[in-house]
């Protein structure tokens, strides 16, 4: 079972629901999202939908286009995605090189909890949940390594990758790769951690 989460506000619930739909590919790039339609479908007022649009625009999933409103961003083309992957790898490997020795037992507990949640998501065969838990695992690693200064840019890079999440049908492999990362972290082997990260981030 996943950990018991704090109750979410309506704004957070709507934002998560829309993010999951975007990650699952339920909206094509360029699709116009309308507040009224989404509010009716989700059973909420327009305010939380508007707030969700702002948050998801900040994360890089949505864009405001003149005379069209809020549209879904297109996934990055391959050469741009390759660069995004490279930048994300640089951030995560730098964090490990800098902070591996400083990970506390509390930090490891957070990473292990994230891995359990990823395993639970995989067992339920939910693409959006797997993608979300995949990123949450890496975020737990970064935070455990003391990489708070990089979190905002890292999250934006992840949003771009999630728009074309490529690990939708090999959940067993995904779990194995994340277990390798945790095992390498626990062994304090920087090179093994970096190799495991590079194998996983693609």
From TrEMBL:
Taxonomy, superkingdom: Bacteria
Keyword flag DNA-binding: yes
Positions of the HTH gntR-type domain: 8-75
Q: Which GO terms describe its molecular function?
A: DNA binding; DNA-binding transcription factor activity
Report if keyword Disulfide bond is assigned: no
UniProt cross-references to InterPro entries, sorted A to Z: GntR_C (IPR011711), TF_FadR/GntR_C (IPR008920), Tscrpt_reg_HTH_GntR (IPR000524), WH-like_DNA-bd_sf (IPR036388), WH_DNA-bd_sf (IPR036390)
SUPFAM superfamilies the UniProt entry points to: GntR ligand-binding domain-like, Winged helix' DNA-binding domain
One of the Pfam families matching this protein, by short name:
GntR
Region forming the signal peptide: none
Q: Keywords for this entry?
A: DNA-binding, Transcription, Transcription regulation
Q: What is this protein called?
A: Putative GntR family transcriptional regulator
Q: Which organism is it from?
A: Phycisphaera mikurensis (strain NBRC 102666 / KCTC 22515 / FYK2301M01)
Lineage runs: Bacteria, Pseudomonadati, Planctomycetota, Phycisphaerae, Phycisphaerales
